[in-house]
């Protein structure tokens, strides 16, 4: 590319969104064109720095799954009681769940609820992970 084009490109990169919108409006008026009616076939889209930053930021997770990873044989009954109180499962279903670890105890729980459930299960003797 020529130096003239390179300079224009560099200037365009430094524009804010408001300035870019104003530039488009001026180009439309000056050349009597409508930028909104241009077909996007074969066009590349440019992302702004703001969009790049937003896409690079990790969204804070709001829903968590509580997974019962492991239960010692001597702690099975206390963990079973906690599982029943948390899930409202019957005795047989809760026993099957505790014996077939790793299993999800609760899915899509809030962060606070997940921490509470983890604390209760660990207090009873289970090993728990939050995902």
From TrEMBL:
GO biological process, one term: translation
Span of domain Large ribosomal subunit protein bL12 C-terminal: 64-131
Keyword terms, alphabetized: Plastid, Ribonucleoprotein, Ribosomal protein
Domain Large ribosomal subunit protein bL12 oligomerization: 4-36
Pfam families xref list: Ribosomal_L12 (PF00542), Ribosomal_L12_N (PF16320)
Molecular functions (GO terms): mRNA binding; structural constituent of ribosome
GO cellular component, one term: cytosolic large ribosomal subunit
Membership in a protein family: Belongs to the bacterial ribosomal protein bL12 family.
Protein name: 50S ribosomal protein L12, chloroplastic
Taxonomic source organism: Polyneura bonnemaisonii
């Amino acid at each position: 590319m020529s130096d003239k084009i390179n300079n224009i490109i560099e200037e365009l990169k430094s524009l804010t969104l408001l300035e870019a919108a104003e530039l488009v409006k001026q180009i439309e008026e000056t050349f009597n064109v409508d930028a909104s009616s241009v077909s996007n076939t074969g066009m590349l889209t440019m992302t702004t720095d703001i969009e790049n930053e937003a896409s690079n930021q990790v969204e804070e997770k709001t829903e968590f799954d509580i997974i019962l990873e492991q239960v010692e044989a001597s702690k099975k009954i206390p963990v079973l009681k906690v599982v029943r109180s948390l899930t409202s499962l019957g005795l047989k279903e809760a026993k099957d769940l505790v014996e077939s670890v790793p299993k999800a105890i609760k899915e899509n729980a809030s962060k606070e609820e997940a921490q509470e459930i983890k604390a209760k299960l660990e207090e009873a003797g289970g090993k728990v992970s939050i995902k």
